[in-house]
Design goal:
The chain is an alpha+beta fold and 620 residues long. It is built from 18 helices and 20 strands. The protein has a 9-stranded mixed sheet with strand order 10-9-6-11-12-18-15-14-13, with helices on both faces.
């Protein structure tokens, strides 16, 4: 029977969970360490006879160590195959079986096996990719460390033993990245989930590398190894450097790479693409739309994006292909044109609280605009369209902006009489001053001296714009409030970026070659898609909207999925399971979301049968 024992570890009391069992092969009792609990000081409450009371509580079932339940209704044979003198029974992960089910349903398994069959690849390509994807979700580490931990799963994920093939596997992933994403999209589109692309969200983020040195551009060289220049005298670039210094979303000075990501209206990823770190956000859209999304046969899509994508060329590309857009428009930059209209209270639809206070208001107008697109041959194409412009104000956001800018505005107010104080301040302050040349005595520009003048009207405009937001859209027949709600759904893609950066630990990035970096983020993309499908199924099971814009992870968060899958473990002697962790409530939710009841998993055969049920593609 399991018991708590206290041993010395580096001279300090240390607790562990152990059990003595009869081992038939050696015809005697042998002690097995089930779990190392940690130093005694971690648990000690400082009261007399702590250890005695602690053991008594465990015996009475009052203590649960990471949800481990001990089954005694096991098969008659409880023998263990012992290698050497190893006393340790290791609980192995079975939560990955849910991930494997979705992975196979996405068609990746079949695709990679076909790639291997059509090439000279001899290593376990599919097994390695599964290992990297599951590891990215459960325990993000370097590819080498993930490979070293390949035996943490109850059933083998890969049979491969040579870690040198890791990087050859990454090369293959990069080579077939586009085809893999297309295969995933086809499988999702034809599944019970389907693709909801009446709204398709697009955004860009970047990831930094822990090095101060980026990648140099590769230039075209002549026979004398001299750099060849074009008609304008600019060097001809054969290949752009990938890790480049650019505008980091996190304010980092290290080199970065850019990622453009499309997701559908269910929050499930559609495609992703990487760009050199010095690529402007707005220029990524054309590449992704023309080279990736267009090939996926998604039907008519409405692209929702932030102000960074709001360019004439991007909007031209969208409407020229029969699609639509909803993009934000900078209020502060456009205040000169929209200020009077925004401040005119007529025509607003107002929403009041219980006290009669306006907490939200909005109105719209239709403008005729001309979009211009520069073709590759230098000619320009033009298209006239009608565009709806919506201005809206939120009390909540107004109060938030006032709070965030309170100290800054107070500082600006104090500088009205002494504008010289602003000249060495941060860039944000410079918009409120201008430098003029005057002669201090006559006012004439004879012997000019630079004088800083505070622009009071700029400060007034800055305060006037607080709480206001604006979007423009091609969908002129749609209801204004509905369009605003659709735009706010952009938070889903921001949440996807957060998951990649935090839960999946997309950084630090342990690979340096461009091909391997791209393969790393393809692995993150696949992992994100799997997590989103789990979340989607749970929302449907709980009859919650998969289109909810306010915290659409309300069914189960990525963090909770990761935690529950990690702690779902079992131990087997190949004849029958001896231990299995108590499934967390999230595991039970996942099982019920695919139309099953939590099965009896107290033997290896039963776990194997459950694995086969999951592999029938019941998630999709």
């Amino acid at each position: 029977m399991p018991h708590i024992e206290c041993v010395k570890n580096n001279g300090k009391p240390y607790l562990r969970l152990a059990e003595s069992r009869y081992v038939k092969d050696i015809n005697k009792q042998k002690k097995f360490v089930i779990k190392n609990l940690g130093p005694l000081s971690k648990f000690d409450d400082g009261k007399p006879e702590f250890l005695k009371r602690f053991r008594e509580k465990f015996k009475n079932g009052e203590i649960d160590f990471d949800g481990i339940t001990y089954y005694y209704n096991l098969p008659v044979k409880k023998t263990f195959e012992i290698e050497g003198d190893n006393n340790y029974i290791e609980l192995k992960n079975i939560g990955y079986l849910f991930l494997q089910s979705i992975y196979n349903s996405l068609g990746i398994n079949q695709f990679l096996n076909q790639v291997k069959a059509n090439s000279k690849i001899e290593y376990d390509l599919n097994g390695l990719v599964k290992l990297f994807v599951f590891g990215r979700i459960l325990e993000p580490q370097s590819k080498k460390k993930t490979f070293e931990n390949k035996d943490k799963y109850l059933f083998q994920v890969t049979t491969h033993e040579d870690e040198q093939t890791i990087y050859r596997c990454l090369d293959v992933l990069d080579k077939y990245s586009k085809q893999i994403q297309n295969r995933m999209n086809t499988k999702i589109k034809n599944s019970s989930i389907g693709r909801v692309t009446n709204l398709t969200y697009y955004d860009v983020t970047n990831y930094y590398f822990e090095t101060m040195y980026g990648d140099d551009d590769v230039y075209e060289l002549d026979e004398n190894n001299e750099i060849v220049k074009d008609e304008k005298g600019e060097p001809i670039i054969v290949k752009k450097g990938f890790r480049k210094k650019g505008v980091s979303k996190e304010g980092k000075k290290e080199p970065i790479v850019q990622m453009g990501l499309f997701i559908d209206n269910n929050g499930i990823p559609v495609s992703h693409k990487l760009f050199p770190g010095n690529t402007q956000d707005k220029t990524t859209f054309k590449n992704v739309l023309e080279n990736d999304v267009d090939e996926m046969d998604l039907g008519r899509i409405i692209v929702v994006a932030d102000n960074g994508m709001n360019t004439q060329e991007n909007k031209y590309l969208i409407v020229d292909k029969g699609n639509g857009y909803i993009v934000s428009k900078s209020v502060k930059k456009s205040w000169k044109k929209m200020g009077l209209w925004a401040l005119d209270n007529s025509d607003y639809v107002e929403i009041n609280n219980s006290l009669g206070q306006v907490v939200f208001k909005y109105k719209s107008r239709i403008n005729e605009i001309e979009l211009t697109y520069k073709n590759e041959d230098g000619t320009k194409s033009k298209k006239k369209i009608k565009e709806k412009e919506i201005i809206y104000w939120s009390k909540k956001h107004y109060e938030k902006e006032v709070h965030q800018n309170k100290k800054f505005i107070e500082y600006l107010e104090s500088c009205k009489e002494h504008p010289d104080k602003l000249k060495d301040k941060e860039k944000k302050s410079q918009q409120f001053i201008k430098t003029v040349d005057i002669d201090k005595e006559t006012g004439e520009v004879i012997h000019p001296e630079k004088v800083i003048v505070f622009l009071d009207e700029k400060l007034n405009k800055y305060k006037e714009t607080m709480g206001f937001y604006s979007i423009v859209t091609s969908e002129i027949e749609e209801d204004d409030k509905e369009l605003i709600n659709r735009y706010h759904g952009l938070s889903r893609i921001e949440d996807s970026f957060r998951i990649i950066k935090s839960d999946l630990e997309g950084r630090p990035i342990y690979v340096w070659l461009e091909e391997h970096i791209k393969a790393h983020f393809l692995i993150c993309f696949i992992a994100l898609t799997i997590i989103r499908i789990v979340q989607y199924k749970i929302l449907k099971y709980e009859k919650k909207s998969t289109l909810n814009v306010d915290g659409w992870e309300q069914g189960i968060t990525a963090e909770k999925i990761k935690e529950a899958l990690n702690e779902f473990k079992a131990c087997s002697d190949k004849k029958g399971t001896c231990l299995i962790s108590t499934p967390k409530s999230e595991i039970e939710k996942i099982v019920k979301s695919i139309g099953l009841e939590m099965p009896d998993l107290t033997s290896i055969d039963k776990i194997d049968r459950f694995k086969n049920v999951l592999n029938k593609g019941i998630f999709m």
